[in-house]
């Protein structure tokens, strides 16, 4: 059976500044993208229906139905139109984008417009803006609690602030990079992708604690300990990358958008974790072990 061979990196050839350069540059790029997105849209990411509220229709394909037909059937422009493997179309509308009269709801108005255009609706659902705001707060709270819990766990394990900072910095970058690319590739932030970002925090803590434990608790010099941690950590992460890549490809092939989005987020985040763990974290730990001695 073939085994993954992890090459040994000679860290003595690189200074701490050199190791930090790439992770910090990519983190700065991610923060610029997210900050620019916030300035332009008022949100750090493309918020999905669960976070902003809106309506969703599942329209049956009659054989002559296409995206252009669906667009012209409604007075308001749909936020998204996607076709699922069964042939049906999932059409979403942001909250308060459809004109209503009297006590008419947005969903009722959309149903009427679809029926007038001869479209057959298989199902319809609506999410209120207040529910979306609550979902936003809960998602943000979940991320904050995850970071705080992670920091406390690492501090309790190693009883030092430096390893805790290294783990938090690595996890923060692991989340920011895929979030920035989600904006650039038009992937929405939904409950599913928030769950993927929370999973990345778990992956990051796992790989960073493995590295910290080998360096700070086990015998051997710094570079020998780092090499041992890499053999396990890189194999573990690349295995996860392969599995998540297959999930993303399967989701794309079968038109399951949420699986594609989750797979994309996890693949990007796990690759970022490799970089942050064995460049950013290693440089901070080397500085800590040598107490600021230049390398």
Characterization of this structure:
With 295 residues, the chain is of the alpha+beta class. Helix content is 65%, strand content 8%. The chain folds into two domains: 191 residues, Multidrug efflux transporter AcrB transmembrane fold (Up-down Bundle); 74 residues, Alpha-Beta Plaits, CATH 3.30.70. It is built from nine helices and four strands, in the order H-H-E-H-E-E-H-E-H-H-H-H-H. The protein has a four-stranded antiparallel sheet with strand order 2-3-1-4. Strand 2 and strand 3 form a beta hairpin. Helix 1 packs antiparallel against helix 9 and helix 7 runs parallel beside helix 9. The longest helix is centred in the C-terminal third of the chain and has 33 residues. It is elongated and about 75 Å long. 33% of the residues are buried.
């Amino acid at each position: 059976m073939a085994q993954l061979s992890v090459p040994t990196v000679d860290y003595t050839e690189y200074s701490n500044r050199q190791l930090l350069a790439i992770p910090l540059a990519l983190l700065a790029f991610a923060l610029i993208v997210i900050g620019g997105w916030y300035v332009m849209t008022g949100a750090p990411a493309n918020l999905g229906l669960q976070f902003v509220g809106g309506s969703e229709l599942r329209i049956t394909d009659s054989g002559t139905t296409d995206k252009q037909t669906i667009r012209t059937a409604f007075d308001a422009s749909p936020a998204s139109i996607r076709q699922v493997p069964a042939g049906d179309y999932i059409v979403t509308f942001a909250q308060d984008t459809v004109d209503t009269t009297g006590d008419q709801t947005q969903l009722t108005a959309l149903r009427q417009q679809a029926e007038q255009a001869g479209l057959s609706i298989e199902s319809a659902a609506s999410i209120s803006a207040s529910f979306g705001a609550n979902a936003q707060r809960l998602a943000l709270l979940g991320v904050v609690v995850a970071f705080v819990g992670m920091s406390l766990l690492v501090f309790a394990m190693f009883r030092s602030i430096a390893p805790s900072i290294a783990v938090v910095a690595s996890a923060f970058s692991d989340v920011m990079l895929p979030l920035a690319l989600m904006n650039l590739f038009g992937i929405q932030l939904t409950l599913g992708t928030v769950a993927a970002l929370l999973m990345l925090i778990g992956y990051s803590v796992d790989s960073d604690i493995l590295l910290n434990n080998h360096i700070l608790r086990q015998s051997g010099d710094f570079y020998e300990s780092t090499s041992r941690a890499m053999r396990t950590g890189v194999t573990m992460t690349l295995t996860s990358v392969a599995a998540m890549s297959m999930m993303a490809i399967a989701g794309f092939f079968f038109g399951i958008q949420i699986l594609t989005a989750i797979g994309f987020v996890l693949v990007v985040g796990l690759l970022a974790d490799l970089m942050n763990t064995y460049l950013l974290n290693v440089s901070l730990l080397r500085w800590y072990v040598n107490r600021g001695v230049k390398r």
